[in-house]
Structures are given as structure tokens and as C-alpha cells.
Design goal:
mainly alpha, 10 helices
């Protein structure tokens, strides 16, 4: 039942993320859509299913690397669409983009999970910290010159919103279940499977056009740093502040340290 509730909460948060992009545009919407949302129930799932503090810390420390891989996944949605044949149909282009971006994610994630088997547990936290720094730098670089970030103009059906939440909820619920089996690295990586990012890119491309989803890529990459920081902060806040206090402290800490400065900086860039 705990896994089910984690999945339901994650699905609701996924719907919120995509609606933000359509309502507020790629700049603000992309940033809001990538604040710590599904990672919150995922972190609670880790806390409830991890057998020890070491397992919990390992799962959480993997999240920044997972978000860095997600940033690469997102970036493919900016650089690859112009290279696709304009003669292809909408669904053919979308299918090729989905397959290519997921292939890049799977290759990067598989390589990382395999490589982590050679990393001592004492160094996992440092791997996460390095991932946090690289992710923040990648996001800043992606937004450095500004990108057009128009708002969506077409209404989105309740069925489409539900499908977005269902995919994200399944991914996060699966990660919580994996954590209970004693595979913290795999759990941490599966918790940040780009379910929200994929459903956001696909559904917004279909409902609003390529320009809206492309405009959200950079801000979402930058905003992902708050998700990674939330996970790292939870390593400190869970044992010191308890479950509720740990979530609240890590969430507000990540917002104040990443999301607020990022929004201030994005406002200074040239966005349409």
C-alpha cells in the first residue's frame, strides 16, 4: 500500500508539472515543472523501504547523476528535432524522437549503474556531489543565450493529463518497490526515470507544437538541479529532522538555493 500511495502522489505531481509549462510558458513553466515533485514521494519510499541508513544514503546520492542523465535526455529534444526530415509525418517525427531520446537515456543510465559496482560505498556521496555540480553547470549553459519560451494556446484533455500522471506514478512506484529489494543504486536511478520529461515533451509537442516543448528544455534542465539538491539534503535532514521535517527542510532548502536564484537569473535572459 505504501508503494501505491507513493505512485499516486507522484502521478498527481506529474500532472502539475506539465500544466505549468502549458499555462506559463517554457521559461517559468519549465522551471516550475522541474522543482522537487515526484522525488518527494520517491524519497519517502526510499526511507520506508531501505534496510539501513547506508542504503538510504546511496539511493539518494544516485539521484543527482540520474538527473544529469535526464538533462542529457532533455537536451536531445532541443538538438535532434531540427535534424529530422521535415517531410516525415508528425507521429513519425515524434516516434523517432522518443526512441532516440530514450535510447540515449538507457545507454547513459546502464553505463552508470554498471560503473557504480566498482565505486566504494564511502565515495557514493561524492559521486552525487560531483553530479550536482555538473548538472547545475549544464543547465546554466543550456540557458546562457536564452531561448524562445512561448505558452501553449490549446486546451488539454483530462485523458491526456491522466496518462501523464499514470506513467510517472508507475515509474516512481516501481523505484520504491526496488528500494525494498535491497538495490539502492538501481532504485535511485529508476526513481528519476524521465517519465515526466517524456510525457511532457510528447504531449506538449502534440497539443501545443514543437516550439513550446523546445522552449521548456533549458529551464527544465536548470530546474532539475533543485531535484538533485533535494535528494542530497535529505541525506542530512531525514536523520536529524525526522520524516516530515526532513522533507520540508530539504524541499525548501532546494527551492531557496536553486529554484529562486535560477528564476531570478532566467528573468535576466532574453526569452520571448
Amino acid at each position: 500500500m505504501s508503494v501505491l500511495w507513493v505512485a499516486i502522489l507522484a502521478g498527481a505531481m506529474a500532472i502539475f508539472a506539465t500544466v505549468c509549462i502549458e499555462r506559463f510558458g517554457g521559461a517559468l513553466g519549465g522551471l516550475l515543472g522541474s522543482i522537487p515533485t515526484t522525488i518527494v514521494p520517491a524519497s519517502l519510499g526510499f526511507l520506508g523501504h531501505s534496510a539501513s541508513q547506508t542504503e538510504l544514503s546511496t539511493s539518494l546520492a544516485v539521484v543527482p547523476i540520474g538527473m544529469l542523465i535526464n538533462a542529457v535526455f532533455l537536451f536531445t529534444w532541443r538538438v535532434l528535432p531540427p535534424k529530422l526530415s521535415p517531410a516525415s509525418s508528425l507521429y513519425a517525427r515524434l516516434g523517432m524522437m522518443s526512441g532516440a531520446s530514450l535510447g540515449v537515456w538507457a545507454l547513459c543510465a546502464g553505463s552508470f549503474v554498471g560503473g557504480m559496482t566498482y565505486v566504494p560505498e564511502s565515495l557514493v556521496l561524492w559521486v552525487g556531489i560531483v553530479g550536482q555540480v555538473l548538472l547545475l553547470g549544464f543547465g546554466v549553459w543550456a540557458c546562457w543565450e536564452g531561448v524562445p519560451a512561448p505558452k501553449g494556446k490549446r486546451p488539454v484533455s483530462a485523458l491526456v493529463l491522466l496518462s501523464r500522471g499514470l506513467l510517472a506514478g508507475c515509474a516512481v512506484g516501481f523505484s520504491a518497490w526496488i528500494a525494498g529489494l535491497g538495490f539502492p543504486i538501481l532504485a535511485g536511478m529508476s526513481s528519476v526515470f524521465p517519465a515526466i520529461f517524456l510525457t511532457t515533451m510528447v504531449s506538449i509537442w502534440l497539443s501545443q507544437g514543437e516550439a513550446v516543448q523546445a522552449g521548456a528544455v533549458g529551464p527544465m534542465m536548470l530546474g532539475s538541479s533543485s531535484v538533485a539538491l533535494y535528494a542530497l539534503l535529505c541525506i542530512l535532514t531525514f536523520p536529524t529532522l525526522g520524516t516530515i521535517g526532513g522533507v520540508v527542510g530539504a524541499w525548501f532548502g532546494s527551492i531557496l538555493l536553486v529554484s529562486v536564484p535560477a528564476w531570478w537569473w532566467l528573468k535576466r535572459q532574453t526569452f520571448a
